[in-house]
Amino acid sequence: MTEIDTGNEQLNAEINQWLKWDKNEKTRLAIKTLTEENNYPELKKLLLQRMEFGTAGLRAKMGPGNSQMNDLTIIQTTQGMVKYCKGVLPQIATSGVVVGFDGRHNSHRWAKIVSTVFVNAGIPVYLFSKMCPTPYVAFSIRSLKAACGIMVTASHNPKDDNGYKVYWSNGAQ
């Protein structure tokens, strides 16, 4: 892979890292195309800002880059959750995590990715087999005595958005 030179070291690093790490051809191609078009303002918007946890989790437009919901940001977010949870919830290794998803585009895919990251870290996962209403995750955490839960949904937000809601062992966001 040829190193990118936009004239901005930070942007160069983010583009190169994205193209190396993103395994989803659609979002990877979007960043590659923007780079080939020298669309640096859009690349800066997508890559130099990260989503931030708001009320109970993340929500953003689905698309390429660190500032949007996509396979790579879901993986990275979940890796961070695993690390954090292992530090503050030692029981997670036995009590596990509940993962749910709604009918939005990518929700089921991302719930499976979330589950895979937790399982690869040695944490049991209770993954819903079908889409479910958000309150089912909170209820299931308490019912199963799980350490926490994640619901992939953007609730009532625009159709191009998706989200990652986090619930604690008491079922609260």
Automatic annotation (TrEMBL):
It comes from the Eukaryota. One of its GO terms (molecular function) is phosphopentomutase activity. GO terms for cellular component: nucleus. The keyword Isomerase applies. The keyword Magnesium applies. Residues 51-173 form the Alpha-D-phosphohexomutase alpha/beta/alpha domain. Keywords: Isomerase, Magnesium, Metal-binding. GO terms for biological process: carbohydrate metabolic process; purine ribonucleoside salvage. Belongs to the phosphohexose mutase family. This is Alpha-D-phosphohexomutase alpha/beta/alpha domain-containing protein. It comes from Candidula unifasciata.
